[in-house]
Design a protein that fits this description.
alpha/beta, Aspartate Aminotransferase, domain 2, seven-stranded mixed β-sheet, about 15% strand, binds pyridoxal-5'-phosphate
Length: about 400
Amino acid sequence: MKVETKVVHGKGITVDSASRAIAPAIQTAAVFSFKCAEHGARLFAGEEEGYIYTRLGNPTLRLLEEKMAFLEGGESAAAFASGMAAISTTILALCDAGDNIIASSPIYGGTFALLSKLLPRWGIEIRWAQATKFVQQIEKNKLIDERTKLFLIETPANPTLDLVDLAEAANMAKTYNIPTAVDQTFATFYFQKCLDFGIDIAIYSTTKFIGGHSDAIGGITISTRDLMRKIKDETLIDLGGVMSPFNAFLFLRGLKTLAVRMDRHNCNAMKIAQYLEEHPRIENVFYPYLESNPQYALAKKQMSGGSGLLSFNIKGGKEKGKTFLDNLNLLCIAVSLGSVNTLIEHPASMTHSTYSAEELKEAGIPEGLIRVSIGIENAEDLIEDMDQSLNKTFS
Ligand SMILES: Cc1ncc(COP(=O)(O)O)c(C=O)c1O
């Protein structure tokens, strides 16, 4: 089966065997009863499969976990309350006080805050390597030691769309026996099968393209059974950041239209990237699938499309950028991404405001950069709105 069929049908079971319903039921129960005391004891001891309590497992969550594991090409998955819950739980499952993580830079502002501000309080150290020169900087700066427990990679990176070479990073990590995790939120399995490049763990904010409609917060981690045992059974159920069954239902529904949505996001983003690149008032455009992008060859190697995110600088910097946002009518000034609606924002003052001015500079995030998540509207309408706003901004 091709991916367009897989997102609709999963492994092929499309109807509930008891009711023949074509959509999954939402199992809202927090608690499941035992047939007898001995049955309860056997479930707790792991001697028999079954549901106990939704924080430990739930049928609707399980449908989503199994479908995402299948689509990503992993053995097992866990559903979390948010993308940040997926990232933080994965880290805490793999790292103890005194350990360190090597992370790619730049990275989403929330992840940056978790890594640079929160984790050091528990004795976990972060070592940064620039996304575009990830393995080269790790080598040059001798970042790996015996306490390095994870490579945490975001590619394409939020908000610059910089890429990390997945095969190079996975090969290096394997020689040192270090697990690798990739934040797949921007590309999704539809454009980037990170596990095929030797990456161990795929992480998502499902809030974005998986849901697709900006109406549910969630996260997913997919990996081998062994790693997922650590992440889910030994960490998630005690930290407690599990997804709600209602949201699992929304993500299952979102998955069915993922392929058609991603094709439209991709096609629209390419048209808009090309339009912006030609515009005299635009300084530069960052989109992995633009031929002028210095990482175009790598994008073609590890992604089957550029996805729906792009960023750019306007001539006149931050001030002109703000006026440009305010003059838009159709594009919505909002954070988040992966929605059917086009969402536009200013990372330095919004999604990446957790970075200081100095940290933005170090991470290579321009102060005036604008990020857009291209929706599934008609590309000509989006271009027309950007065009009128640019004309107004510079009149
Ligand atoms: C790349 C990336 N990873 C993770 C997250 C965090 O996800 P959530 O908001 O679902 O916690 C975000 C949120 O914007 C993101 O852009």
